[in-house]
Amino acid sequence: MSTATQPMLVPRSGAITLARDYAELTKLRVTTLIIMTAWCGYYFGALKSGISSVSWSLLHTLLGIGLVSGGTAALNEVMEWDTDGRMRRTAQRPIPAGRFGLLHGTFVGSLMMLGGALYLGLVLNPLTGWLALATSCVYLAGYTPLKKVHPICTFVGAFPGAMPGVLGWTAARGRLEWGALVMFAIVFFWQFPHFFSIAWLYLEDYENGGIRMLPVVEPDGKSTARQIMLYSLALIPISLLPTVLGMSGKIYFAGALLLGLGLFFVGVRLAMFNLAPNTPRSKQRARQLLQATVFYLPLLFALMMLNRNL
Question: Which of 84, 174, 189, 295 is within CB 3.0–4.6 Å of 235 for a Cys-Cys bond?
Answer without folding.
Answer: 189
